[in-house]
């Protein structure tokens, strides 16, 4: 398992809390595992979960994730990619 950075730990906890994930803890979310999809190592999230994540990220970090952004599949691919996007947006602000 890849170790989570501080921001990845925070974002993982945000995912667990905002999505009411009952069968996984923040520490158990593999930073490079897919967040979406049917793969065995993914969290198995869906498009409704993506909307919830976008709202939670906006509230927690003040970063707007738009539904029509062509980069969403890359941004939401893994915990690491989502955290990296948040970090880039915070640095640019």
From TrEMBL:
InterPro entries found in the cross-reference section: ACP-like_sf (IPR036736), PP-bd_ACP (IPR009081)
Record-linked SMART domains: PKS_PP_betabranch
Pfam families for this protein: PP-binding
Domain Carrier: 5-90
Protein name (database record): Acyl carrier protein
Native organism: Salinisphaera hydrothermalis (strain C41B8)
